[in-house]
Amino acid sequence: MREKQALTTGEVAKYCGVNFRTVIRWIERGHLDAYKLPGRGDNRIPVESFVDFLNNNNMPVPEELDSGGHKLVLLADVDEVSTEIASCVRRAGWDLLVTQDPVHFGFLISQNQPAAVAITRPEFEESVRRIVREGDHKEMLCISITGSGEGAQGLKDGWLHLRWPHDQQQFILQLTSNQAA
């Protein structure tokens, strides 16, 4: 867990390679969330807001500000199951990125370096396996989620295969144990 909760305008400027007055303009124009300290009125930018700002503007997030890489990218159709999965991921304290498009899925993996990926479309498992293997992805948790009764459960070829909703508790347990690691 990171130590800092907020940054000064000077620190943000240094991370972005701009003058601190530019950061003040971003705050004044509503591009960057901040609050003023009592007394002198100096601005402080919450780290989470700054990281969101960097992600929204396709700027790199410095390692020391990253929340530990607890991001999960989900490739799923928009349905009740994917909604339940998303809810579980967020309750476990993970950041979630969802897409229906396999190409965008690969893009999200390369841009965000997630700690985990999950798919609800088993036909894309081999493609995702290739992306993970060929990319510079550290120990990534790979989860394939199918409907009840479909497919084998357990660990196979580096993938955790789960049936939804039958294995929902195991899914949550995997996320919480990986977050503690």
TrEMBL record:
It comes from the Bacteria. It holds the Pfam family HTH_17. Residues 7-57 form the Helix-turn-helix domain. This is Helix-turn-helix domain-containing protein.
